[in-house]
Amino acid sequence: MRQFRLVHIGVAAGMAAAAVTSLGLVRAVNATGGGSSSVFVPITPCRLVDTRTGPNNVGTRSTPIGSGEAAVFAVWGPNGNCTIPNIATGIATNTTAVNATAGSYLTVYPADAVPRPKASNLNFTAGSAPTPNQVTVGLSASGAIGVYNLTGTVDVIIDIVGYYEPTSAGPPGPKGDPGDPGPRPAHILWVAPSGGDFTSVRSALASITDNDATHLYLIKVAPGTYTETGGIDLKPYVDLQGSGPRVTVVTCACGSTTTPRTDGSSATLRIPSIASHVEDLSITNTGGAVYSTGVWTAADGSGDQDALMVPLLRDVNITLTGEHGNYGFWARFGSTRIEDVRIYIDHGDGERLGLVTVETAFVSSTNLDIYMGQDGTAALIDGIWNEGDVRLQNSRVFENAFHSIGSIEVLNSLFENFNADLNVHCVGAYGGNFLALGPHC
Asked: How far apart are CA 106 and CA 123, in angstroms?
């Protein structure tokens, strides 16, 4: 016995005669999921069976199908008004119930199907008008179908509109052109090792030329390590977002012979005075000259210093590994917000300064951690070097907490190796071994 799942194409249900106008491939599938391909062959509709007596009768049977009876009808060869080749694997039909004496249904199936399918192809009531339905059915191994009637008696008319025959698929065709990738959000650029818009942050920034207060941009950086060929100048109104500080690393050997007091040429990342946010990545400078800086920012005096417009660093790791002077975050003029930032410096025989403010810079930080190595080779080590103004909240500074000429406000923070300073105002500050510090730490 063969079992089939045949897909019928273009046959109109509910018509006494149906025509097929399309040709398509179907797959005959056996119960275990294997099978072979078949092609649908449309034909001029022909009547295979009409069990009514008299001039309407077509085929070998002229009596209705009885209650609980399964009638078998041959399909292959000349039968009724049809001639179907013996290579056919299935047929598409319009099947009609006529002269029903009871409410019942018909099941049309391959004649050798065991057990008979418990399914209905056509439903009708006693005395109802002729009731048609489109039925596609596979053939038995000998090319026949079975028709089962549940109860009462009923005449059956079967018109064939096409059949299926085996075919083999041709060789694969040539690969088509890539489709339209679909709409993408405006002003969002992806940096990725492959599959993105750019492979470096510098190249993504170079493509942006219309950034302003009404044309905001976001550069998203996929996981990976991106070795830039020089320092990155983040533009105003352009934000930079990685995929997490442990998985997105932007690095550069960006050392310079010019001190960061003069300019940001020694920095991996230079941030403009307004409206740029940096989030969810790691920034590394491996040095290569006298001065190495992680992040450098300076206001030019013309920017809007509204709280929502100042530069922001959030969830960023800054690591310095240069052989000489290393500076984690250098702020010159202007205001900057820092949230969940970690600065690591344990190399260098010059100065090691974690957070530096000079001129009139103001830095407000929450959850800032600064780790300074004490290997005895550095000329100067300070976690915070403040000549401007700094506000620390829920922060930790390890090794030589601060040197302050300007004002520092401290709330709920922890320091090691600190010196009391009248410029420092502390509430809830603690030193080593979590000893409470005084109002000036």
From this structure: 7
Q: Is 270:264 a contact under the CB 8 Å cutoff? A: yes
- Contact between 253 and 287 under an 8 Å Cβ cutoff? The reply is yes
Task: Examine the pLDDT at 43 and tell me if it is beyond 90.
Answer: yes
Domain with CATH 2.60.120 in the chain: 25-166
The whole-number pLDDT of residue 124 equals: 96
β-bridge mates for residue 25, sequence order: 39
Segment 116-124 shows an average pLDDT of: 95
Write out pLDDT tens, residues 384-432: 998 988 998 998 887 666 777 788 888 888 777 665 555 676 676 666 5
**Superfamily of segment(s) 188-434:** Single-stranded right-handed beta-helix, Pectin lyase-like (2.160.20.10)
Model pTM score: 0.58
The answer to whether the beta carbons of residues 315 and 280 sit under 8 Å apart is yes
CATH 2.160.20.10 domain residues, the chain: 188-434
Q: What is the 3 state secondary structure string of 337-390?
A: EEEEEEEEECCCCCEEEEEEEECCCEEEEEEEEEEECCCCCCCEEEEEEECCEE
Using CA atoms, how far apart are residues 239 and 391, in angstroms rounded to an integer? Answer: 24
Domain 25-166 has CATH 2.60.120: yes
